[in-house]
Amino acid sequence: MRKPRWWAELSLIAVVYAAYSGGRLLVRGDEASAVAHGLAILRFEERLGIDAEHPLNRLFTDVAALGVPADFAYASLHYLVTPAVLVWLFRRRPAHYRAARTWLMLATLLGLVGFTLLPTCPPRLLDTAHGFTDTMAQFASYGWWGGEASAPRGLGGLTNQYAAMPSLHVGWALWCGVMLWRYGRTAPTKALGAAYPLVTTLVVMGTANHYLLDAVAGAAVMGAGLLLTPYALRLADRVRGRTEAPPVVSGGCETSTGERIPGQRSVRSTADDTSKAAR
To answer: pTM for the whole thing?
Structure first.
């Protein structure tokens, strides 16, 4: 199998991420439906007794030593760890890189479908009567973000704050964890692979950016992307085979220097020999 070219991979990832970011911004739902969806998720969790967001958010709000690092993690790690794992796979595990990259991209695009079909208000944007505190806003003085999710101050209009379902923070962290666990060769690497998605899940709930079911949906999206990956790879190979292997029209004949058509010189030499014999 041909090794991927770094510049082609970088271009492909940039195009897909730009499409994802632009699409996420364009499919921003209206506030009323997003709030209704968020409340429906919260009430469903409360009926099942799995609304873990409340105690985690109170803990992160009351203990700055937990809340501030969690805010930094939410605002930065998915931008740093995911590309780092991609580069690591490209350099150290090239045989597995293409399938891993395809899995990540498919799941990300499926997440965009989720944002489109189910715009969801995160817990931090619900009315304060529901008991949530936006830790990103509370501890904004410690970092570069403002009161609008992980966007830098003044750039909140460039993000879709109603894209809570599914949580791709959790989805991407799960992908990173699987890659580190499966292809890492040391115990610390595998331990990091196991811990990273779990810590990310606690962070997104503790900072009131996602519900527990958002995290579950993020994992489900990654599962769907994994199932679709073999089909996507086969389709890509089929398309590549058609574009890179043009049919041979010369029948295997090749022209030599000075020839316009294959075998031209051999035909001439045969004709000359026949003429000499006749003389």
So the answer is: 0.81
